[in-house]
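lol forgot to send this yesterday, sorry. struct tokens for the thing we talked abt
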């Protein structure tokens, strides 16, 4: 009984945590990329003397679980730093439709099941378009806890977009969200590194000039701190093991290699200890920051010693907004770098066995220009590269090429500072080459984390055509477009329901021809298992209030109340089960198997009908008297229920045959 009371006290403390009051921040909350977002726009005088290249930076900050964008906007202490450095700051809310429960960003296995990664990349794109002052080379993403985990995934998925990432006490890329309160598994570093590279795909080259700040509080779980000292009144909870952050530093160091960690030193007036991973040229790439007297909380460092003001906020320790902004500005590897020229292929003109290729090349960096354009022809009879004449425009002529073949032009432009870029044009037909051949396609498919199907392979176009798109079909789910890079394609879908999935790939070429290729068949178990401690199940909202048609209509799982759960699992971790993409969890594996859980109005008891929202005993009796029903809509057409009552329950009822 004692354990039951303590568990309920813990549950209540999570569910009833105080919320911060709204306050004006200079702009209203905007719906951008599917998320209500607070945006701070600096005034013209803000940041003078600190701007890099005279342009402004954008920092996107992601809140943690049981926390809101308003908490960070009002109490996260971003505004003074934004004014000092002339920053644009965006703080999006995860939103009920996009979260994993308890206001958490969904970072499970880096599968992007709620499109959190995609949305934040889109948010950055929208803000860069809206505010031309934002320098594309100074876009950063930061976050706390689940927000930090998503920030790391975003930095992996779009390293070309984000010049740096700041992650405070977040689990690693590809980690299991349900196990984030435990120490990382033994293969975490290798797994996270592989997952990050997988997310990046062809953009992995952008890791060469990305930077990372990884921070944890010494009062967080296993942090080694001795406990909060006055005037620390909040933000001192121990929740997520600090080993996650330490291993994140190792992951980014290997990702950014070569880079080596030095010795730790005090920073921020002694409020933190910093260990830098430095590249051979002396430029810091990774900062591992240990913050003193900070627990699992956003380190606002505002100096406010009063209690209250935001969930999961530490106001007295390190000022992380100021620290990470200064670190980003001091170590940005992109703001002053050379940008490659822009090159395009316009036309290929054929005369007999001669091909003249034309296009344009331009370098927009001040003081730089295109130094050379070289052009080659690919195909069955490849032609070696030759220097083109001019740059804007340029042209190159290939005389006496073999007849009855197609040639694909490839132009490479170089600038005076060593930058280069390549563009490929449409195939040029000489004579009468063989036509009508299909593209060749290879297919591999694999199952990951029991719920994600990865499909990949290569596709090679037939002569005189180019591959326009590649699509993948899993079972009978229809074709979805894959990501195509050169001759390689990749497709990934997660959260699939249990079943058997035959993989089919369709490649479409420029002549409009489709090539179909069959891949392996993948089988996904319908029921999925998660093992955690009781409180971790509550945080993830697997244990919560359930209602009809669940057998249990109280706090617990869909099939068991709290006393039942505790009697079966009095100590230690235990498993709960659900069907992929369902947020309904069961204590019993067999009860989690897919079935129609709607209330059958043709056979349900008065008690089962009574607990449906808005029904009650009187309407339940009327439903029973009116049986049988051919369809649920007859409850309205036969005047058994008013339309408003029917609309409230129509997704929870059926007239199926037993």
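and heres what i got for the seq, position by position
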């Amino acid at each position: 009984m004692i354990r039951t009371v303590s568990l309920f006290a813990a549950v209540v403390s999570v569910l009833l945590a105080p919320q911060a009051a709204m306050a004006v921040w200079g702009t209203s909350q905007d719906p951008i990329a599917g998320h209500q977002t607070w945006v701070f726009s600096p005034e013209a005088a803000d940041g003078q003397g600190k701007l890099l290249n005279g342009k402004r930076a954008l920092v996107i900050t992601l809140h943690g679980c049981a926390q809101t964008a308003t908490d960070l906007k009002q109490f996260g202490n971003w505004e003074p730093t934004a004014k000092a450095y002339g920053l644009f700051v965006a703080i999006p809310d995860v939103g009920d439709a996009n979260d994993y429960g308890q206001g958490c960003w969904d970072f499970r296995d880096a599968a992007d099941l709620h499109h959190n990664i995609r949305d934040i990349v889109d948010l950055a794109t929208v803000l860069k378009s809206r505010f031309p002052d934002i320098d594309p080379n100074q876009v950063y993403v930061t976050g706390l806890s689940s927000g930090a985990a998503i920030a790391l995934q975003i930095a992996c998925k779009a390293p070309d977009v984000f010049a740096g990432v700041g992650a405070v006490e977040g689990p690693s890329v590809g980690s299991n969200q349900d196990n984030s309160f435990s120490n990382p598994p033994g293969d975490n570093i290798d797994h996270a590194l592989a997952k990050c590279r997988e997310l990046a795909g062809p953009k992995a080259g952008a890791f060469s000039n990305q930077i990372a700040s990884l921070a944890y509080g010494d009062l967080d779980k296993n942090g080694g701190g001795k406990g909060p000292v006055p005037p620390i009144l909040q933000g001192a909870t121990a929740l997520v093991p600090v080993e996650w952050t330490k291993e994140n530093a190792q992951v980014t160091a290997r990702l950014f290699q070569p880079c080596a960690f030095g010795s730790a030193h005090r920073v921020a007036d002694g409020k933190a200890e910093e260990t830098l991973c430095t590249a051979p040229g002396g430029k810091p790439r990774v900062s591992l920051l240990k913050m003193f007297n900070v627990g699992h909380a956003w380190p606002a460092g505002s100096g406010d010693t009063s209690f209250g003001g935001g969930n999961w906020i530490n106001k007295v320790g390190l000022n992380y907004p100021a620290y990470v902004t200064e670190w980003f500005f001091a170590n940005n590897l992109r703001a002053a770098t050379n940008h490659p020229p822009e090159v395009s292929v316009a036309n290929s003109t054929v005369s007999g066995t001669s091909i003249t290729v034309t296009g344009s090349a331009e370098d927009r960096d001040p003081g730089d220009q295109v130094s050379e354009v070289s052009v080659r022809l690919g195909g069955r009879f490849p032609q070696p590269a030759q220097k083109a004449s001019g740059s804007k425009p340029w042209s190159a002529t290939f005389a006496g090429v073999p007849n009855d073949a197609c040639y694909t032009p490839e132009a490479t432009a170089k600038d005076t500072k060593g930058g280069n870029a390549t563009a490929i044009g449409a195939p040029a037909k000489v004579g009468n080459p063989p036509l009508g051949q299909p593209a060749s396609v290879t297919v591999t498919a694999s199952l990951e984390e029991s719920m994600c199907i990865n499909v990949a392979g290569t596709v090679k176009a037939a002569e005189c055509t180019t591959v326009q798109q590649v699509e993948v079909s899993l079972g009978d789910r229809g074709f979805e477009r894959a990501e195509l890079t050169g001759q390689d394609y990749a497709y990934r879908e997660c959260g699939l329901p249990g079943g058997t999935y035959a993989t089919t790939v369709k490649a479409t070429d420029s002549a409009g021809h489709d090539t179909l290729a069959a891949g392996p068949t993948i089988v996904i178990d319908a029921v999925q298992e998660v093992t955690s401690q009781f409180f971790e199940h509550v945080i993830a909202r697997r244990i919560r209030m359930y209602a009809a048609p669940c057998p249990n209509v109280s706090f617990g799982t869909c099939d068991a109340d709290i006393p039942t759960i505790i009697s079966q699992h009095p100590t230690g971790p235990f498993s709960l089960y659900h069907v992929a993409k369902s947020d309904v969890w069961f204590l019993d594996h067999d009860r989690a198997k897919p079935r129609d859980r709607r209330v059958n109005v043709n056979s349900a008891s008065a008690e089962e009908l009574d607990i449906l929202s808005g029904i009650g005993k009187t309407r339940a009796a009327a439903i029973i008297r009116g049986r049988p029903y051919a369809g649920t809509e007859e409850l309205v057409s036969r005047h058994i229920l008013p339309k408003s009552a029917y609309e409230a329950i129509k997704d929870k009822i059926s007239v199926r045959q037993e």
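The chain is about 20% helix and 30% strand. anyway ping me if u want another try
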